[in-house]
Specification:
About 35% of the residues lie in helices and about 20% in strands. It has about 525 residues and is α/β, with parallel strands linked by helices. α3 packs across α4 and α13 packs parallel to α14. The longest helix is centred in the first third of the chain and has 24 residues. It is globular. The N terminus is likely disordered.
């Protein structure tokens, strides 16, 4: 049952004057349940509790933290159908999407738990002393990754489970040993509150310190800005727009003690379709990309918003086939009226640009918050001359650029901002002839895809979900997979430190049995 409470280490009811209701985009009405804004006092309490919890939580063993994460997964599952129903009501997504995203969230939590139980993620590195070395003796040095401190996580609008309250940012920060304060997304507060109740229950069951997790409610920028500027907060995780992510980045940079903001922001995910693929399999790729562009109403950060190909009869055929395939797909619901309004604004802005032609825009009757899929086409020269055309339109939208030749194609890729993904559709026999295209695309993206679609982000250690700015604020890190934990830690060295006072990961006996680098050799054996 939705209660309208905030969770601040324990279940404390919000006492602010402002209340909120979430929205049902399918029915186009406000939901009945109300939520109260967190007060300044509650914000201060949440951060103070997180700081106090850090002193204890950072020293919890990997097994203890793993038990906590597994317990969160168990408690989320225990919420059953009611959680899925609230998710669907607040997001407009179908039941299958809710079940799939919940499964992904559970898998993320359990993956980090497995990482913690195994233990070598801390990158323990030991260089033993060589006091006899001349002319200067070598000191004993030992290094490992240490948690930063309290982390603020901003819930994402388009992933109420996987990138929100107990999603990847929260799971990875908790795995690192950092308490988490979530700024719940205003579009799915009810979903977030139910997930937060599961996290709190898991924390109590596994004897985690008070304040290891908090969930705060507030609209606008006041709550978020207060958290980012708070001196006890040490890092920020964000998934959303370029405008929002950059604002948080700037706030964090202007603090007396600047802190890192790991923001996953905008991306149009360019797709290059090479000539032989157009000639031999255009119908296959037209059907595939019609599905990818409209999947989830286009509300994915990896939506293919830009298609690039070289002019010719084969491209004309592909364009007609893609148009036909997109027309077959019924429009679906967007997350919120404000998301739909932004989609319309962005779409109309690009449609109004010189030289743009509308290949398809669904003209049938649709419900208020449903989005008509749209495909625009334009000449390569015109695209190069107008930076506006490379702006992201969040929704079922793509623009197909007709390039004169490979040289122009490479010029367009080189002019693009940083992207999460880049894709090449090609016959096996032709891709080797387009090395310049491959090199240019690799320099602009975090993940390069061959003969596939960018939508769909596998949760595994080899996944990079990030890219050059503005795809993310720091292209060295991923927001998906167990290596996302590295955002919330810093390397730390002990020099000539007494063995019994070292963390277990660095002690001579290696009581945890983890793999370590000892004098440049990877081993799990003790140091004799």
């Amino acid at each position: 049952m939705i209660t309208g409470k905030n969770y601040i280490g324990s279940q404390l009811k919000g006492n602010g004057d402002k209340t909120y209701r979430t929205f049902n985009p399918q029915l186009n009405i406000e939901n009945l349940w109300e939520f109260t804004e967190a007060t300044h006092e509650e914000i201060e309490e949440a951060v103070t509790l997180a700081d106090q919890a850090f002193k204890i939580y950072k020293n919890c063993s990997g097994q203890e933290k793993a038990s906590f994460l597994n317990a969160i997964a168990d408690e989320i599952l225990a919420l059953g159908d009611e959680l899925l129903e609230i998710y669907c009501i607040e997001s407009g997504y179908p039941r299958g999407r809710a079940e799939g995203e919940r499964g992904r969230t559970i898998f993320q939590l359990r993956s980090f738990a497995e990482m913690l139980n195994e233990g070598s993620w801390v990158e323990a590195t030991i260089d033993t002393a060589a006091l006899e070395r001349q002319p200067l003796p070598k000191e004993d040095l030992r290094k490992m990754l240490m948690p930063l401190g309290p982390v603020v996580v901003f819930g994402s609008s388009n992933f109420p489970f996987a990138f929100s309250t107990a999603g990847g940012d929260t799971a990875s920060a908790l795995a690192a040993g950092c308490p988490v304060i979530v700024k719940s997304h205003s579009m799915h507060i009810g979903t977030g509150e139910m997930v937060a109740s599961a996290v709190i229950k898991a924390a109590k069951k596994t004897n985690m310190p008070e304040g290891v997790f908090s969930n705060l409610i507030g609209s606008g920028v006041v709550l978020g800005a207060s958290l980012v500027k708070h001196p006890l907060v040490k890092a920020v995780g964000f998934t959303g727009s370029i405008k929002g992510g950059r604002a948080l980045f700037d706030l964090a940079s202007q603090r007396p003690e600047p802190i890192p903001v790991f923001a996953e922001m905008g991306s149009i995910n360019p797709v290059v379709i090479l000539p032989n693929a157009l000639e031999n399999e255009s119908q296959k790729w037209a059907a595939t990309y019609a599905g990818s562009i409209t999947l989830g109403t286009g509300q994915f950060c990896t939506n293919p918003g830009l298609l690039l190909a070289i002019k010719g009869e084969n491209l004309d055929n592909f364009t007609a086939q893609l148009t036909e395939e997109m027309e077959k797909i019924a429009p679906s619901c967007m997350l919120h009226p404000s998301i739909k309004a932004d989609f319309n604004l962005g779409k109309e802005l690009l449609k109004s640009q010189k030289g743009v032609r509308t290949a398809i825009e669904y003209k049938g009757k649709i419900a208020p918050n449903y989005a008509p899929q749209t495909l625009l086409t334009i000449e390569g020269k015109t695209f190069l001359e107008n930076p506006t055309l490379s702006h992201e339109v969040f929704g079922p939208f793509s623009i197909l650029v007709q390039c004169d030749d490979e040289v122009q194609l490479v010029s367009i890729i080189n002019q693009l901002d940083g992207q999460l993904t880049g894709t090449i559709i090609s016959e096996d026999s032709e891709i080797g002839n387009y090395i310049n295209v491959i090199d240019s695309l690799q320099n602009r993206v975090g993940r390069l895809i061959f003969n596939g679609v960018p939508t769909g982000v596998e949760v595994c250690p080899s996944m990079i979900h990030g890219g050059p700015y503005p795809a993310s604020s720091d292209s060295r890190f991923t927001a998906v997979g167990i290596h996302a934990v590295k955002r919330w830690v810093r390397p730390f060295s002990f020099q000539n430190w007494p063995d019994k006072l070292l963390p277990l990961e660095l002690q001579n006996e290696n009581p945890l049995g983890i793999s370590r680098s000892v004098n440049t050799i990877q081993t799990s054996l003790p140091i004799l």
